[in-house]
Known about the structure:
By secondary structure, chain A is α/β, with parallel strands linked by helices. Helices cover 41% and strands 17% of the residues of chain A. Strand 2 of chain A pairs antiparallel with strand 2 (88-94) of chain B, so a sheet runs across the interface.
Amino acid sequence: xxxxxxxxxxxxxxxxxxxxxxxxxxxxxxxxxxxxxxxxxxxxxxxxxxxxxxxxxxxxxxxxxxxxxxxxxxxxxxxxxxxxxxxxxxxxxxxxxxxxxxxxxxxxxxxxxxxxxxxxxxxxxxxxxxxxxxxxxxxxxxxxxxxxxxxxxxxxxxxxxxxxxxxxxxxxxxxxxxxxxxxxxxxxxxxxxxxxxxxxxxxxxxxxxxxxxxxxxxxxxxxxxxxxxxxxxxxxxxxxxxxxxxxxxxxxxxxxxxxxxxxxxxxxxxxxxxxxxxxxxxxxxxxxxxxxxxxxxxxxxxxxxxxxxxxxxxxxxxxxxxxxxxxxxx
Amino acid sequence: xxxxxxxxxxxxxxxxxxxxxxxxxxxxxxxxxxxxxxxxxxxxxxxxxxxxxxxxxxxxxxxxxxxxxxxxxxxxxxxxxxxxxxxxxxxxxxxxxxxxxxxxxxxxxxxxxxxxxxxxxxxxxxxxxxxxxxxxxxxxxxxxxxxxxxxxxxxxxxxxxxxxxxxxxxxxxxxxxxxxxxxxxxxxxxxxxxxxxxxxxxxxxxxxxxxxxxxxxxxxxxxxxxxxxxxxxxxxxxxxxxxxxxxxxxxxxxxxxxxxxxxxxxxxxxxxxxxxxxxxxxxxxxxxxxxxxxxxxxxxxxxxxxxxxxxxxxxxxxxxxxxxxxxxxx
DNA sequence: TCAGTGAATGTTTACGTAAACATTCACTGA
DNA sequence: TCAGTGAATGTTTACGTAAACATTCACTGA
Lengths: 330, 330
């Protein structure tokens, strides 16, 4: 910075002013400084900046190693939104999803060059963790139900599930079966609960819940069982992969989709438009979740709020060819 | 640090020594300092450290927004390996894959708190970019063929394709068809070239190349055409998604896999073991690619080497039920 | 004419750390 | 006994920046 100042014939402080876009610098001075910067290939030292300013302009993202598609797309959106706000994103991977590991990630936080944190993870692990956050470190959690202890941004799982079930009921189906996700998953729980609640509201009895583990293979196995139920004309699958397996099982058993059975998925993964038949599904806006996470931490940082609560991102039902009215006479 | 020193009754320098694990501190002094650190919840300021040391202990990863599964798993491995080496990972997303964007990412690098860079991206975009890297900034590129200009770590695409083709020839097939990836992709190019070369070596004529765009849907469409070729008994698909579409097309057309047609994929995505039938495919070791990227930048940083060259990560053929000898009489 | 004003620019200083050098002090061995 | 040695610890200083305060100087208006 001193070299630039010398070459431009000004003081270092003026270089700093130009470098930070502060007002009160003559157009001509500014041009000379910029020229000197280019000449010397000057780049501000971010360590010194951070030290002086007391902030790093960096957000940390704690994730249980990039596992699900949703997490990844949320992370992508976080990185993009953060960049737009002039923040960098540092990854804090947690290899094994244990209390200790999560706890460790949180305590390493203090030494890391990070101003705020976004956690993308099933939140079970945050429960008992006696997390000692560095003072002033703000946290936002994506995709969890810890709204009573953290600021949470989540997809409106319940709303999406409700839309899926209502869509099928609206087509005239007597009831809707559910191919649910694993018991431990909060997202799966909420989708299943909303499915049951929506049937209740309509005065309908929920058929027995069939569970998978999110994988296409588990959807296929569950599908073989569902295909044996003659009165099953509509299935809401808790994600698209399981719906894919279900489609294949129904096809193998000679039950046509959507003529005999209607199927709705959840997620709207890119492939779902190419399934046979193209899948009606609940679109999740991961980009918006990521954006709101960034917005959330930044505003908490700026106002230094300690609050909590949940922001829900609405879903959108995408109607494709896998749903239709039930076969005549049912 | 001063507070800790006062509380422990030592100098700040001794605190620094304990904090960095330097030798020459009595066990008793060390214990007192550690106690004082805990008491005051002291955490070293990473900005000041970076300023003083002249390094950030951070690697930057430039990716064209987290698109493909391979990129994501590579990124995951990079983050994990970096953490093991005491390095953090900062994400530098490039929203649009244009020269300008990539160039921009590279020049922002100078201001970023980053000691080295890993690029995960098709490398077309690096070609013409007049990249002005900050002095001393080392770069490693994953998954590209720019070995003459950068240090590159890549999966052994050619070796994997060769193994796939040889496996099919070894089973007795007269020739092997190829369902290739998009023309612009370097990975697709290398897989297709190796397919052709392996047939050449065996003195066989390569059937016409059928192209998809990596998606299952494109594999399905290509599969419908391949199903019309009565002499097609073995297909090597350039990725597992296209193989999935291919399987479905063959099934629809009544051609049994593996009885009538053998199919090999590439990637070994988790689902491929659950395809119908389970898919023989080429396993890519993304974790190893990521690890080698980190190792590569770090060693270049330490020795300040300016060299380039390519490190290939071997693949492994995973034999499942989608491949078998050709039907009798063929 | 000249005190007063305010924009443009300069000078001093501290952010928290660790390298380089300095000092202390117990112990060794002639 | 005491110079010599080396481990343990302390003091001084600089890393590059930007906030706080200081100075310069052209211009205004009574």
